[in-house]
Design goal:
Layout: E1 3-12, E2 15-25, E3 30-34, H1 41-48, E4 56-61, E5 64-65, H2 70-75, E6 77-80, H3 92-102, H4 107-120, H5 136-148, E7 154-158, H6 166-183, E8 186-191, H7 194-197, E9 202-207, E10 210-215, H8 217-221, E11 227-233, H9 236-247, E12 252-254, E13 257-262, H10 265-275, E14 280-286, H11 290-298
Parallel strand pairs: 3-8, 3-9, 6-7, 7-8
Antiparallel strand pairs: 1-2, 1-4, 4-5, 9-10, 11-13, 11-14, 12-13
Helix pairs in contact: 4-5, 5-6
């Protein structure tokens, strides 16, 4: 395992932000930390990026202990922050050169690194462009290029799609997958976006600083039984009791509607509409999503 986290705990005074979180990331894997804002993702990211020490627990990156060998860990991680860290008044190449100097790179060696990362990320023809003239998607690629300049095996990304339009997000994920497939780079990212989490190889779901579940998106969704049916009705509590009494179905109130997990959802819809004529205002059916998994495990929504 290239990243190993064991019983990680962190407290801010009397508040516990992380409580005994454990997981491991395989080499060449895209691993996501999914959860709502305030769930502990940012604290965990800062610890992994060596920006703070945990209150308890252990982290190892590429065999090096984060607390005892932070300098060795920093050599082996690239970090892409949620907020932009580029100098808008400098060119792409000038930003990369400044980043290289922070890692002690200079001269021909630095020039070769800049050539390599700009080609890898499709930035070779934009090297002399001012950052302020670039689109949001291109700026994100420059951020990734900065993170990869010193050839780390692990890339940490905090909410990588923040501020990007759908087209730029698709393009960004194309490059993330290429980095994994062609370079073997391990990507560990935080996100609260369900479509982004669905693109990861494996996920850790976090809520209130605790581990909710871990597995591939498909494995996690398989935890939800059957289909998910959402019913809009007049009186939620009355209809919930009627559903249980007449059809033996348990429903929960979510965002002003009743949510039912059931096999063969399309058949259930016919049954419930016929059983309660005029009482059902609208019906929606969908296959389980990561939101459904999170709701099942925590009783809360990610968004």
């Amino acid at each position: 395992m290239i990243v190993s986290v064991e019983n990680l705990t962190h407290r801010y005074g009397s508040r516990t932000a992380l409580s005994q979180v454990s997981f491991a990331v395989c080499e060449g894997e895209i691993f996501g930390l999914l959860g709502p804002n305030g769930g502990g993702k940012s604290t965990l990211f800062r610890i992994l990026a060596t920006m703070m020490e945990p209150s308890a627990g252990a982290v190892r990156v590429a065999g090096f202990d984060l607390e005892r060998q932070p300098a060795e860990v920093r050599k082996r991680i690239g970090v892409v922050f949620q907020s932009q860290s580029l100098d808008r008044k400098l060119t792409v190449e000038e930003n990369l050169r400044a980043q290289g100097h922070l890692y002690g790179l200079a001269g021909a060696a630095l020039a070769r690194r800049i050539d390599r990362v700009t080609r890898r990320l499709g930035l070779a023809d934009r090297r002399r462009d001012l950052v302020e003239t670039l689109s949001g998607g291109l700026r994100r690629r420059v951020e990734i290029a900065k993170g990869l300049l010193h050839d780390p095996p692990v890339l940490l990304m905090d909410e990588p799609s923040t501020g990007l339009d759908p087209a730029a997000r698709r393009e960004l994920w194309q490059y993330i997958r290429e980095l994994r497939d062609s370079q073997g780079i391990t990507v560990l990212l935080t996100t609260h976006m369900l479509d982004e989490a669905d693109r990861c190889d494996r996920l850790l779901l976090l809520h209130e600083g605790r581990t909710v579940a871990e597995g591939s998106p498909a494995e996690l969704k398989a935890r939800v039984g059957g289909d998910v049916v959402m019913l809009e009705v007049g009186d939620l509590e009355v209809m919930r009791e009627r559903l249980e009494a007449r059809l033996g179905v348990r429903a929960t109130a979510v965002n002003g509607a009743l949510r039912v997990e059931i096999g063969n959802g399309h058949r259930f819809i016919t049954e419930v509409v016929e059983a309660f004529p005029g009482a059902i205002q609208s019906v929606a059916l969908h296959k389980p999503t990561l939101e459904d998994v999170f709701l099942d495990e925590t009783g809360a929504l990610i968004g």
